[in-house]
């Protein structure tokens, strides 16, 4: 892969999206107000942990780099970066939010009257699996991706929907709520993560083993220019195309369109395996720890009951 530095020709606005940065700053301000000044009006509140603050800042920086920084621009040019963006955003950043946002704050938000009924439905394990993975597969159908890449509003809406369904999908695994919701066991969580990987495999396999490039927005110069208009101001884009001789995405990479597409599928699959391995280790460790605590609690209760019985019979000696 070469000439990636050439994306600087598209200018500061396209590379660093200051408007998206303002949105990230606004969300961060809401977070810090919510976990400090506003938390006293939320039931079950507690002081925010330093680890939560650090993780939240890291998550916001990642979201900005993935959707507002050069990676987002590259995701419209090189398919490999598109898949890197998807893997990190939905399989890394979304789960991270469950450790960055205090559980009482999440509980307060998802139990708001307007949100409660919808979220309680889409976060049910089976439906959550089907929703996110189904939408992910639909998104990567060539006709859908090519269309969304040339429509800014619909692309933004679909991205938000994917983010929400990803958050709902990870709720059964990483929620720490004390609310009376049905929790799945450690073994079920491990099976659940495995099933996410299984359901992601067909779309990755289709991309990896395709015998020809599938997406016009990464191969056809005219479709590519239309897609680039989503992230590059039209005046800047026209000037760059007129003055630089750039005729399509092939200018920015030494890989062929098919090699780029296959590399993207491999990146998605490899990162998925890495992230899921970490998740499985975390779930397994917590499961064994909770099982040990349960056994200890059961033993203590048995001893207390035995002592009570012994004290009762001692009265008649």
From TrEMBL:
It is a multi-pass membrane protein. It is found in: Cell membrane. It comes from the Bacteria. GO terms for cellular component: plasma membrane. The chain crosses the membrane at residues 12-33, 53-75, 87-106, 126-145, 152-171, 191-211, 266-285. It holds the Pfam family Caa3_CtaG. Keywords: Cell membrane, Membrane, Transmembrane, Transmembrane helix. NCBIfam families: caa3_CtaG. This is Cytochrome c oxidase assembly factor CtaG. The gene is ctaG.
């Amino acid at each position: 892969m070469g000439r990636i530095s050439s994306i600087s020709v598209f200018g500061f606005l396209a590379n660093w999206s200051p408007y998206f940065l303002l949105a990230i700053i606004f969300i961060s301000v809401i977070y810090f107000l919510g976990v400090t000044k506003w938390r006293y009006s939320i039931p079950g509140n507690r002081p925010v942990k330093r680890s939560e603050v650090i993780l939240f800042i890291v998550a916001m920086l990642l979201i900005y780099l993935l959707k507002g920084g050069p990676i987002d621009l590259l995701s419209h040019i090189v398919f490999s970066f598109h898949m890197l963006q998807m893997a990190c955003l939905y399989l890394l950043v979304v789960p991270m939010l469950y450790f960055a946002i205090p559980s009482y704050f999440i509980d307060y938000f998802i139990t708001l009257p307007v949100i409660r009924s919808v979220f309680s439905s889409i976060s049910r394990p089976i439906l959550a699996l089907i929703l996110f993975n189904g939408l992910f597969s639909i998104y990567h159908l060539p006709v859908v991706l090519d269309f969304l890449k040339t429509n800014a509003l619909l692309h933004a809406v679909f991205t938000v929907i994917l983010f929400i369904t990803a958050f709902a999908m990870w709720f059964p695994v990483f929620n720490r709520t004390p609310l009376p919701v049905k929790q799945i066991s450690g073994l079920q969580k491990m099976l659940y993560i495995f099933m996410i990987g299984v359901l992601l495999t067909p779309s990755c396999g289709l991309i990896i083993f395709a015998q020809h490039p599938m997406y016009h927005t990464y191969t056809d110069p005219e479709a590519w220019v239309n897609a680039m208009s989503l992230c590059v101001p039209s005046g800047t884009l026209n000037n760059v195309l007129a003055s630089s001789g750039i005729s399509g995405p092939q200018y920015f990479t030494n890989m062929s369109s098919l090699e780029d597409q296959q590399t993207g599928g491999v990146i998605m699959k490899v990162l998925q395996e890495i992230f899921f391995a970490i998740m499985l280790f975390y779930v397994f460790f917590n499961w064994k720890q909770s099982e040990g605590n349960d056994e200890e609690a059961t033993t203590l209760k048995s001893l207390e009951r035995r002592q009570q019985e012994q004290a009762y019979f001692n009265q008649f000696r």
